[in-house]
Write a structure and sequence with these properties.
Blueprint: E1 4-11, H1 19-28, E2 34-37, H2 47-55, E3 59-62, H3 75-93, H4 109-114, E4 119-120, E5 123-124, H5 134-144, E6 149-154, H6 160-175, E7 178-181, H7 183-190, E8 201-202
Parallel strand pairs: 1-2, 1-6, 1-7, 2-3, 4-8, 5-6
Helix pairs in contact: 1-6, 2-3, 5-6
């Protein structure tokens, strides 16, 4: 019987005060995840955080360099957002990002045509909003969890309510039989090869339309 898999993803890090507690919880529950990092946050001080991600079997992906709305940029500016982030990831962790999550999930034909990586969306619970409580975040993720889905969370600096929510989310979903995998592992296990320029913003592995349906 095929196992139930789920990709937890985190945007807007890395940093010391939120990303590290997230990594500690992932380690405690033997869970992999994918981190969509903002390039300008990757400094010499933060580089060890990316190295810890790799040691734990997590995946490091790109969330652009300065978190702009890409459709408002020129092609040259978009490519700079991609290349500068990839360079910092490479320097800090020795890997190249395989996936890109556009800031604000804002895409256009030009964005799809310019960024040379598959685009990842995800099902989120507005955990970037301080008004959304940890309990609401927990309930939202438990409702959205399904085999093959990508869950979009945030490890932005100071986002303690998402850390608190993970303390419940991880054991609860583990108890339901879910296995936490990286985005790369999700696609591989589902037999899907996501391609750049495909004009799909993936929120689940087997998605074929540009946008996933709202749930």
């Amino acid at each position: 019987m095929r196992r139930r898999i789920l990709a937890l993803t985190f945007d807007d890090g890395p940093n010391l005060n939120t990303t590290l507690p997230v990594l500690e919880l992932l380690a405690e529950f033997r869970a992999a995840a994918s981190f969509f990092v903002v390039g300008e946050h990757i400094t010499a001080e933060i580089a060890p955080v990316l190295q810890q991600m790799r040691r734990q079997g997590c995946e490091i992906c790109s969330h652009a360099f300065s978190h702009p709305a890409l459709p408002q940029l020129s092609q040259t500016e978009m490519l700079s957002e991609h290349s500068r982030t990839a360079a910092r990831i490479q320097k800090a962790a020795g890997v190249q990002p395989r996936f890109f999550r556009p800031p604000y999930l804002a895409v256009s034909d030009a964005v799809f045509e310019t960024i040379p990586l598959p685009m990842i969306g995800g099902y989120g619970v507005r955990d970037f909003d301080d008004a959304v409580s940890a309990d609401a975040r927990t309930a939202g993720v438990l409702r959205l969890a399904a085999d093959g889905r990508i869950i979009l969370l945030h490890d932005a600096e100071g986002n303690v309510q998402t850390v608190e929510a993970l303390r419940t989310i991880l054991p609860a979903l583990r108890g339901e039989g879910f296995v936490f995998v990286t985005v790369s592992q999700l696609f591989a296990e589902k037999g899907i090869t996501p391609l750049p320029h495909a004009k799909i913003l993936y929120s689940y592995a087997e998605q074929t339309e540009q946008y996933a349906p709202d749930l």
